[in-house]
Q: What sequence folds into this?
């Protein structure tokens, strides 16, 4: 801590958590509060990936960070959200809470320094001109980004809808619906709503035809093999018009016999899919 008292850090933390970027994100708030408090009381040994998964993200004793990237995914989200806060409502704050890349323990940085000198008139004019040019440049950049940014919308289908399999259970349907809900809650508008795809349960259409009907560039197909107490889940992310596989997620021995188990597997798939998007 660079000269900041624990009381000052906690006051600053509460200000962050009350901001628009955090107030509706319980998961990120828990993550940030846990790590800050652990750092303040000298318990940095608790700020480890496994313990964060158990204590912050409610994973059970079967949690394996190698198979479940929840902490790494949420750490990236937290760094981004903190950056947005300090570029927006917190740009005038006198301190920063930072989460260095590759680490989960936060750092507290003071921004206090000598008062800035009052600029003369010529300097002020130059500064205004530079600001105008910067705004114009930012507008051009954002416009170009909007034109070139990849479309992230997709639909999620159970494998027995796509390949018309006669399966003893409909676990693939239950899991596909959970994954769609998980992704939709994270990024509204990113997934075609479940009611709109119900017709494909009985219609005989190819992946390309489904994509054309819905206007989506990719489709996620969810396959479940085995029994509810030990199922193999395979998720295929396909380029809709060509069927090219963009990503395959394979999960052995998943328990899908309860709503909680389905939610946990859906979160795992959503976490890894989010990582895939970040690499594109």
A:
């Amino acid at each position: 801590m660079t000269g900041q008292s624990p009381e000052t850090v906690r006051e600053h933390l509460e200000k962050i958590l009350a901001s628009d970027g955090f107030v509706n994100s319980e998961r990120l708030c828990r993550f940030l509060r846990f790590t800050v408090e652990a750092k303040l009381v000298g318990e940095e040994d608790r700020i480890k990936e496994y313990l964060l998964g158990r204590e912050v993200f409610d994973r059970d004793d079967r949690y394996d960070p190698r198979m479940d990237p929840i902490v790494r995914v949420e750490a990236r989200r937290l760094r981004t959200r903190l950056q947005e806060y300090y570029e927006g409502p917190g740009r005038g704050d006198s301190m920063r809470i930072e989460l260095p890349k590759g680490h989960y323990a936060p750092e507290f940085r003071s921004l206090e320094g000598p008062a800035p000198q009052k600029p003369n008139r010529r300097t002020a004019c130059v500064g205004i001109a530079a600001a105008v040019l910067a705004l114009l440049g930012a507008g051009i950049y954002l416009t170009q980004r909007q034109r070139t940014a990849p479309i992230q919308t997709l639909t999620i289908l159970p494998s027995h809808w796509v390949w018309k399999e006669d399966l003893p259970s409909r676990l693939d349907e239950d899991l596909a619906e959970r994954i769609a809900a998980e992704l939709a809650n994270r990024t509204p508008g990113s997934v075609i709503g479940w009611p709109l795809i119900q017709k494909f349960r009985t219609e005989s259409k190819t992946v390309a035809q489904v994509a054309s009907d819905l206007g989506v560039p990719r489709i996620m197909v969810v396959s479940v093999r085995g029994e509810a107490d030990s199922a193999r889940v395979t998720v295929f992310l396909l380029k809709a018009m060509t069927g090219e596989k963009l990503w395959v997620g394979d999960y052995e021995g998943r328990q899908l016999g309860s709503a909680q188990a389905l939610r946990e597997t859906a979160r795992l798939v959503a976490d890894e899919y989010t990582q895939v998007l970040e690499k594109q």
In short: Residues 113-119, 137-151 have pLDDT under 50 and may be disordered. The beta strands are 95-98, 107-110, 154-158, 218-227, 230-239, 245-254. Residues 6-110 form one domain. The radius of gyration is 23 Å.
